[in-house]
Design a protein that fits this description.
The structure is a homodimer of 123-residue chains. By secondary structure, the first copy, chain A, is an alpha+beta fold. Chain A is built from three helices and six strands; from the N terminus they run ααββαββββ. Chain A is globular and about 40 Å long.
């Protein structure tokens, strides 16, 4: 699929909360996912679809996601940016908060090979 | 300056319409600026601060910019994203329109060395 087809489908699936399906359909097996930051001792970079799936599972196991608003896509060649506004309560703290991040996706051979999340770290 | 200092100053100057000053202060002499697209026969990539300045001058000579709204920054390592909503009337057509784009900036040695604009091409 072309970059804009993937971008539009990804927006659609993320809006429907079907990000697991999106990973299965659009991510390369060797895709890399990079956070803007990570807790001390943790790696901000996940390599491979297996590790990306585990990160997703960890996120949903530890957070109650109340709402996700997706904006974009904004394309540029074989990349595009999506915006995510997330209203979430971490199960450990119970303290609901809202965050906004931008995600930069890179496509190769019709698959997402890299996703990079841009956001402020706490503090 | 550090990435977030540059990002915050850039937002401030762009909000004040002082993007010429921002270029002078924060851009490396060999900075590269890449548009998502270009008219037939034109290059989407401008190399060097001189060419970037000329692009800026062309833009203001040919457009009446009614409003610019800047969002962000969203940082990730030595890069950050800003959002621009632009309300503009091209002088040639007189047809006012609104556009939204994301800009991805890369910092090296305390200067912006690359800016890339993400947006839909017309049609």
């Amino acid at each position: 699929m072309k970059t804009m087809e993937i971008a539009n489908k990804l927006v659609e699936l993320c809006r429907e909360g079907k990000d697991e399906e999106a990973q299965r359909l659009f991510y390369a097996e060797d895709a890399v996912s990079v956070e803007a930051g990570a807790p001390p001792g943790k790696d901000p970079e996940m390599k491979g679809l297996g590790a990306i799936r585990e990160k997703r599972e960890w996120w949903y196991a530890n957070h109650e996601v109340l709402q996700v608003t997706v904006t974009g896509p904004w394309p540029h060649g074989d990349r595009f940016i999506l915006g995510f506004k997330i209203d979430v309560t971490p199960k450990a703290s119970g303290q609901r908060f809202q965050m906004e991040e931008m995600a930069l996706y890179t496509i190769r051979s019709g698959k997402i090979v890299r996703e990079e999340f841009f956001y402020h770290m706490g503090g």
